[in-house]
Each structure stands twice: as C-alpha cells, then as structure tokens.
Design a protein that fits this description.
The complex is a heterodimer. By secondary structure, chain A is α/β, with parallel strands linked by helices. Chain A contains 8 helices and 13 strands. Chain A has a 5-stranded mixed β-sheet with strand order 1-7-6-4-5, sandwiched between helices. In chain A, strands 8-13-12-11 form a 4-stranded mixed β-sheet, sandwiched between helices. In chain A, strand 12 and strand 13 form a beta hairpin. The longest helix of chain A has 23 residues. By secondary structure, chain B is mainly alpha-helical.
C-alpha cells in the first residue's frame, strides 16, 4: 500500500507586510487581520525559480528525517508557474538538481489550489500501477511571478512556498497515512475567474467565493457519505487557505469549530497547492489526528477532497 | 417585504457577527456606515442568490449600497 510517510516545506524568509500597503490600497487593519487574514506574504528572491523552492523543501525533509532518499523512483511537481517557460518540465530540472538516479519517473501536474489532493491520487495510483516504491510529490506555485503590485485582489493574498510529500510503500503503522475515497469536480464555465492571460494574475473574488460556498460543503458531505462517516468523527478539516473570511464562512456552513478547521495563512499568505500540505505537516507532527478531510478549491474552477487516515 | 427584511437581517449577522442592526434607519444607511465591507456584502449577495433563487449580475451591485435597496431589488426580481 502506498501512503504518506513525511512532509517537508520551505517558505522564503523574504516578506512583504500588508500593513505597509494599506494606505496605497485604501484598506484598513481590520480588513487585513480579520477578513483576508494575511498580515504578510512570502516572496521568493528574484534569482530563485520554482525548482529552487522545491530543492529547499527537499533539504528540509532530509534534515527532518536524516534520510538521503537515494531510493526515490518518482518525482512529481504540481505547479502552474514552472521554471522558465515550462520547457523542460520542472520535475526534470529538479531531478537534475537533486542528482537522483536515471531510473526515476518525472512529470509535472498543472493544477492550482486543488492540486495537492488531485496529485496525491495521481501519484499513488501511478506508483501502485507501475510497482514504484518511493515517490516525492512537490507543490510549488510562486504566484509572485505574475502579481500586479497595484491589484489589491491578489497582491495582499498570494504568498510563495514549496512542499514535498514523501510517498512510499508501507505495511501500515502509526506514522503511515493512507488516503480513503476522493471526490473531484470542475466548473470550467467559470474558469476565467482566476487566470493569467495578460501576464498578471487576475481574480474575480466574487465568482470564486460563490463557487466555494456553493460547492465545497456539498462535496464534503458527499465524501463523508461515501465513507459512511459523520462530520463529528473527523478530527481535522484542512481546507485550502483561500482567505480567513472564506474559511470562517465554510466553518459556519459546515458547523465546524475553529479547532477542527484551522486557519494558517497570516504569516505567509495563500500559497496555492502548498497551503494544505503546509498545514498537514504542522498537524501530523503535533496533534496526531486519526482522520483528516482535505479539500482544495480554486483555479479551474476545480475542487477536490479526500479522506486521510492513520489507522 | 417584512419577511425579506428579517431574512436579510439574519444574512447580515451570518456575514459579520459584529454588525448590529439597531433600528429601521440602519436599513437606509450606506453599507460601510453600518460596518459591512466588500467581503461581507459578497457573502450577503451569495446568501440572497441561494435563498431567493435569483441572479445578481456584477453590474447591478454598485446600485445596491443600502440594505433597503437590496430588499427592493429582491422584491422586484422575485
């Protein structure tokens, strides 16, 4: 059985304070703290590219585990902001930088905020069907490459980060996490609500908000029904960190406490496909929950949810 | 109209718990004056669309700067 073994992450220690932008963008402290919930956003350095963020996340994983991961036979990068202009694929660039053996599968997955949940399913299935034993799933989508500094819909919200999830064949145990059922949805009719057609990220916040409020609770309920579980039996709900207000509204609709559906966005922003694994890393290392629901939603408009268990 | 008014008051509370509508005059005050910001209003509009099964296009929003204008808008569309 393939499952999650460990997670490493990297948040560039170069930050832009949103409080420094409040006069220019005509916003109040309350809006920063209690609505978008992002006090500062992380920004990669100008000479860092997407694969560099991935390398640093991998180094954190090595430091954490003491392993060199010499047996890795699969590298996948989930990004829509690849190195250069996307050719070659970032996973191949990364493979070269990490110096892994040639008998290693590498491919990229083009998805945004739903990407981590999707990619978990894809990578696990790919590894299982091809007899692979040790895979690295990276998320790194540095939106700072396409942020318009005058656009308050995006410049206050999106931060840069990278994560790496080590997936491996395992027989079970308390430190091993396996996925349950998955649910996927796409609302392509509204795909332009979040796009980068002009070279800058554009976001229609109202369309995204309506999409999330209408569809995420429905998909969560469908997932729980398919698993035969009640909401009260789930220890933790990890939602993509779109904004503080969005998560608070999801909590209200789904009747979840702040402990069960945490917000982890204030110190680096919305990190696209990295937001869920960043939280998962925190909680796997501390609270040791048994059952977790993860739900990613955004670009596409795409929505994916799954159950994660360590029983 | 009274029913819509009480339903809108509940949506306001759901959107922002700290906003208190004290009297009828508040329904005629500009939204920012009663403490509602753009995100709160986005949430109220979503609730309105779901509750009354109506579509509120972006171009109509600028004219809806008080709760009473929103209530009249719903009444006309229903």
């Amino acid at each position: 059985m393939i499952g999650i073994n460990n997670i490493g992450s990297y948040i560039p220690q170069n930050f832009e304070s949103n409080f420094d932008k409040k006069f220019k963008l005509n916003i109040k402290d309350d809006f920063i703290v209690n609505k978008i919930g992002v006090e500062r956003v992380s920004r990669k350095l100008s000479d860092e590219d997407t694969s560099d963020l991935c390398v640093k996340a991998f180094q954190r994983l090595q430091e954490k585990t003491g392993s060199q991961f010499k047996d890795v036979d699969c590298i996948v990068v989930c990004t829509q902001n690849p190195d250069g202009n996307g050719i070659p694929h970032t996973s191949a660039v990364l493979h070269g930088k990490l110096g892994f053996e040639n008998n290693c599968a590498c491919f990229d997955i083009s998805l945004g905020c739903s990407g981590y949940v999707y990619a978990l399913s894809v990578v696990q299935s790919f590894m299982a069907s091809n007899g692979l034993h040790s895979g690295l799933l990276f998320t790194a989508d540095p939106y700072s490459k396409g942020i318009n500094p005058e656009d308050k819909n995006t410049v206050l919200l999106f931060g840069d980060a990278a994560t790496v999830t080590h997936l491996k064949e395992h027989k079970g145990g308390k430190d091993f996490w396996r996925t349950g059922k998955f649910k996927f949805s796409t609302f392509g009719r509204d795909c332009n609500a979040l796009n980068n057609q002009s070279g800058f990220i554009f976001m229609n916040g109202r369309t995204i908000f309506n999409f999330v409020m209408k569809n995420v609770p429905v998909q969560i309920k469908e997932l729980l029904k398919a698993e035969g579980l009640r909401s009260s039996e789930i220890d933790l709900f990890l939602f993509h960190q779109g904004s503080r207000y969005m998560i608070e509204q999801l909590r209200r609709i789904l009747d979840l406490s702040s402990e069960k559906a945490p917000i982890q966005i204030a110190q680096y922003g919305n990190t696209i496909s990295s937001s869920i694994p960043l939280m998962l890393e925190t909680y796997l290392n501390s609270r040791k929950p048994q059952k977790i629901v993860m739900s990613g939603f955004g670009v596409g408009l795409s929505l994916a949810s799954c159950l994660l268990m360590n029983e | 109209m009274m029913k819509i008014k009480s339903e809108i008051a509940k949506m306001v509370k759901d959107a922002n718990q700290s906003v208190v509508i004290e009297n009828d005059n508040d329904f005629d005050r500009v939204l920012s004056e009663i403490g509602l910001d753009s995100l709160d209003f986005m949430s109220i509009l979503f609730s309105v669309q779901e509750k009354y099964n109506i579509d509120i296009p972006d171009e109509d929003i600028d004219g809806l700067d008080t709760l009473n204008k929103l209530i009249r808008y719903i009444d006309e569309k229903e």
